[in-house]
Amino acid sequence: MSRIRRWARHVHQSVLKMLMTLSGIPALGRLALLLAGALVGPYKDRRILSKLTSRSYVSPGAQIQCHRLHLGCNCFIDERVTIYSHGDGGEVRLGDRVHVYRDTIIEIGAGGSVTIGDNTHIQASCNLKGFRGNLIIGRDVQIAPHCGFSPYEHNFENRDLVIHQQGIRSAGDIVLEDDVWLGLGVAVLEGVHIGKGAVIGAGAVVAKDIPAYAIAVGVPAHVIRMRGEAVRPEAGPASPTQNAGWSTKE
User: Fold this and answer.
1) Which terminal residue of the chain has fewer beta carbons within 10 Å of its beta carbon, N or C?
2) 154 counts as catalytic
3) Angstrom distance (rounded) from CA 194 to CA 175
């Protein structure tokens, strides 16, 4: 029986590899991806499809309109992901093995770009923008659901004009260095630099730079300690990682 199971598993993987290879053919690609998805199951069960060949898996249910989209190898782009460039947008560049999960929007315009490094995972319902400034996310970054990144803001000082007619400005790029972890619902604002290995607790609004290996929480986000240090009594009984949202390892 175990021999039959191994044979069946081999046949199953061979069929999936064939379908992923066919997904690169314009006339057959969508049908091949639909069949492959049906064979492996829903949602994160489909991640296997991004590992079978060097091709990335881009769900037929994703909406992509981006003339300068660069996908690395073995990326996973889930259903209902939107990658959209306005006519004056820069580029969207995803490194190898980047995962972007459903209902996430990546949008660029006004010369802005979005760059995401290798092995970074963007969980569901995040909003990543590149307008005026760029959004630069490093390698091995874990971003929990409902996080937002805005490297620009609206001008609003002129009370004689409605805000949407006053244009936008940027205080600089948003940069997340490698190995950063953002908890559920974190907002990162223009010009912010988050250092390597930093952890940002759930619901934080990051308006100023966070140093490497710091743990920051709150509105606005402030550092409560450094990773590896003993917890200070004033930090309270719960660590920020306990409040940092859903695990991004799954």
Assistant:
1) N
2) yes
3) 6
102 touches 123 (CB < 8 A): no
180: its two tokens: 């950063």
Provide the residue ranges of all domains of the chain, joining segments of one domain with +. 1-52, 56-243
Identify the active-site residue in 10, 12, 154, 222: 154
Q: DSSP letter at 113?
A: -
56-243 in CATH: which number? Answer: 2.160.10.10
Residue 133: name the closest of 211, 196, 193, 199 by CA: 193
Q: Are strands 142-143 and 121-122 parallel, antiparallel or unpaired?
A: parallel
Output the tens digit of pLDDT for each of the chain's 250 residues: 588 788 878 888 888 988 898 888 887 888 999 999 999 999 999 999 999 999 999 999 999 999 999 999 999 999 999 999 999 999 999 999 999 999 999 999 999 999 999 999 999 999 999 999 999 999 999 999 999 999 999 989 899 899 999 988 889 999 999 999 999 999 999 999 999 999 999 999 999 999 999 999 999 999 999 999 877 665 544 444 454 444 445 4
| Strand pairing class (222-226; 187-189) | unpaired
Direct distance between the N- and C-terminal alpha carbons of the chain, in angstroms, rounded to an integer: 31
